[in-house]
Write a structure and sequence with these properties.
The protein is an all-alpha fold. The protein is built from twelve helices and no strands.
């Protein structure tokens, strides 16, 4: 099946899309509460609040890059990625706080105070928070339908929503639960990030985001019932993982932290609760990346041995580590300018695959133009002294 949206770039700011205005209205309204809450935390503990955000940026920026770079061939538009983070950090956190509080009262009234103390977090947050976070992924899709063309895209947008949610929620915990002092913030960072940072909202919403992407990207390829079942199944898996984390089931966390052994027990307890879902997500992400690789190879196979692409170049394009290695070798043999040119050539050869998936005719003007661009870049590279030694040869 052709991937009609592959390679297109769409901004978050789609003024004619009702979904954009719904997204913007909800974010603006909830941002007023978020700003007020952060100002309150800053007043309560200026040093603790600053330390909280400093530590979370040290954690969040590398994680942001890791998620963003997971899609090996087609980076998502930055405005949409940031829009996903904002939804998680602002809209989902505020709306979840309101809904969790209301449902918490219901659980306490029905089950009583003892039951509520143990089970409220498990019976409210997983359902409320996963639904509201996933709503952001759905809105991103409705704003820019062409950008969600495979499961990897859904994971990226979902994980970014989860990352935004986790950062703001962690600040709340550091200040309101761990006391807001520098020592309390450091303790909270150890418990919620160092010990548990691999198992939380990034995984939950990334998983359910893959379900949305599967449902919308496999139309015409997979029957409606199966697409819906997969989407619901992945959402249920995300809720189940969140439920297990919040519930007293398999709870090996220490009741109090009195010595070094208790501190060491925390990451082990987190592993027991979080590792199964992490394994599931890792497998699904690997499968999604393999599918992306398959699309690239199928799209470019007919271009091999043309002036735009050689068999060796296709082999390198399909292997991210080989691409990086080829650029390092090019820099060592022909200099920085040659390395930059090779990087541009590889990017445009990937774009050639994307153009091929969008056109019907082999001589479509867009495809002819992209072939010519790749050919000119190859010619320019081969004209540089020693560049051909880096494995980029003109064939055909």
């Amino acid at each position: 099946m052709p991937r009609r949206g592959w390679g297109r770039t769409t901004s978050l700011f789609q003024w004619r899309e009702p979904a954009f205005w719904l997204y913007a209205a909800i974010v603006v309204v909830t941002a007023l509460y978020t700003v007020g809450q952060q100002q309150l935390f800053q007043k309560l503990s200026p040093s603790g609040w600053a330390l909280s955000w400093g530590l979370l940026l040290v954690y969040g920026l590398p994680l942001f890059l890791a998620i963003y770079l997971l899609d090996l061939y087609e980076r998502e538009p930055m405005s949409l990625v940031l829009g996903a983070i904002v939804w998680g950090a602002v809209a989902a956190t505020v709306l979840s706080g309101i809904a969790n509080e209301g449902w918490g009262l219901v659980v306490a009234r029905v089950g009583g105070p003892v039951f509520a103390a143990e089970w409220t977090a498990a019976l409210t947050a997983p359902f409320v928070e996963e639904t509201l976070k996933l709503s952001g992924v759905v809105l991103i899709y409705l704003i820019a339908r062409d950008e969600m063309d495979d499961m990897m895209d859904g994971f990226v947008y979902g994980a970014m929503v989860g990352l935004g949610f986790a950062l703001v929620e962690d600040v709340f915990y550091f200040i309101a639960i761990f006391g807001g002092t520098p020592g309390g913030v450091l303790a909270g960072f150890y418990v919620r990030v160092v010990s548990s940072g691999l198992y939380g909202h990034v995984l939950y919403t990334g998983l359910s985001g893959m379900g949305v992407a599967y449902f919308v990207s496999r139309r015409g390829e997979v029957p409606f019932g199966r697409r819906l079942a997969v989407a619901i199944g992945l959402f249920v898996a995300a809720v189940a993982g969140h439920f297990l984390w919040n519930s007293p089931l398999l709870d090996f966390f220490p009741g109090s932290v009195d010595d070094v052994g208790d501190w060491l027990r925390i990451p082990l307890a987190a592993f027991v609760k979080g590792a199964p879902l992490l394994l599931v997500v890792v497998v699904l992400v690997r499968l999604a990346r393999r599918r992306e690789r398959m699309w690239l190879e199928v799209a470019l196979r007919s271009e091999v041995d043309s002036p735009a692409l050689s068999e060796e170049e296709l082999r390198v394009l399909l292997d991210p580590s080989a691409r990086r290695r080829s650029r390092r070798e090019m820099r060592a043999r022909a200099g920085d300018a040659a390395e930059r040119l090779l990087k541009r050539l590889q990017k445009e050869q990937v774009n050639l695959a994307m153009v091929r998936t969008r056109v019907v005719s082999d001589d479509a003007p867009e495809l002819v133009h992209q072939r010519a661009l790749c050919t000119s870049l190859r010619d320019a590279l081969l004209a540089m002294p020693s560049a051909a030694l880096a494995g980029t040869r003109r064939e055909g």
